């Protein structure tokens, strides 16, 4: 099972500019929609959330090491 979280605006991009132009309040923040989805491995591969692994790679059950972009900056 793969978890995927995403957020997007409630209305589309073209409507966003219209709402901002017609809004009375200057600093109105448009609402966002937060979703959390669960999908099987084959669906996650289809949506390109995870990569397809080779036959040898599928036998490995260890979690891949996480890439931390800002870990080096904090240590310095």
Overview of this protein structure:
With 76 residues, the chain is of the alpha+beta class. It contains 4 helices and 2 strands; from the N terminus they run βαβααα. It has helices spanning 13-22, 41-46, 55-58, 71-75, and strands at residues 2-9, 32-39. The longest helix is centred in the first third of the chain and has 10 residues, at 13-22. The protein is elongated. The two termini are 37 Å apart.
Strand line-up of the largest beta sheet? 1-2
Q: Provide mean pLDDT, rounded.
A: 80
Termini separation: 37 Å
Helix content: 25-40%
Number of strands: 2
User: What class, by secondary structure content?
Assistant: alpha+beta
Report Rg.
Answer: 20 Å
Outline the biggest β-sheet. Answer: 2 strands, antiparallel
User: Which shape, going by the Cα principal axes?
Assistant: elongated
Low-confidence stretches: none
- Helix/strand order, N-terminal first: EHEHHH
Q: Figure out the total of helices.
A: 4
Strand content: 15-25%
Outline the secondary-structure elements.
Elements: E1 2-9, H1 13-22, E2 32-39, H2 41-46, H3 55-58, H4 71-75
In short:
The protein is α+β, with helices and mostly antiparallel strands and 76 residues long. Helices cover 33% and strands 21% of the residues.
Name the descriptors.
single chain, 76 residues, alpha+beta, two-stranded antiparallel ribbon, 33% helix, elongated
């Amino acid at each position: 099972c793969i978890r995927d979280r995403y957020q997007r605006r409630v209305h589309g991009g073209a409507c966003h500019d219209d709402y901002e132009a017609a809004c009375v309040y200057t600093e109105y923040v448009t609402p966002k929609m937060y979703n959390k989805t669960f999908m099987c491995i084959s669906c996650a591969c289809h949506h390109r959330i995870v990569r397809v692994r080779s036959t040898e790679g599928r036998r490995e059950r260890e979690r891949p090491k996480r890439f931390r972009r800002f870990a080096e900056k904090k240590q310095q």
